[in-house]
Amino acid sequence: MQVQGKDAMHAARYSSPLDCALKALQSDGVCGLLRGGLATLFREAVGNAVFFCTYEYSRYWMHNFLDSPWFSSGNHLVLANDVGIGIMSGGISGMVFWTATLPLDVAKTIIQTDPDPHLSRNPFQF
Hints:
Layout: H1 17-28, H2 30-33, H3 37-67, H4 78-113
Helix pairs in contact: 3-4
């Protein structure tokens, strides 16, 4: 739905998400609804593994750094550090997630939006 009608040469193919789903079912069957599903699965599996490993490691590293003698100010708040560490770890992990998964996301988009039904569904061939 989001990529249709982006140029002036082509009119919109679908009038609504329901119309899109019905036309996909008519032309390709149930497989039409699942087009790009394998690429999405790879993207989410790799991305979530990278995200949570990065999150836990960066959180561990930051806690160790704040508790080390290098940063022994002694008057920092524990709650404020936990919130700040969580925010920083989440931000770092989000950046690493998209760095690792952007190529798979591009392959998924190509698979899902290509009108050729005989296009390879392998996300590693793009």
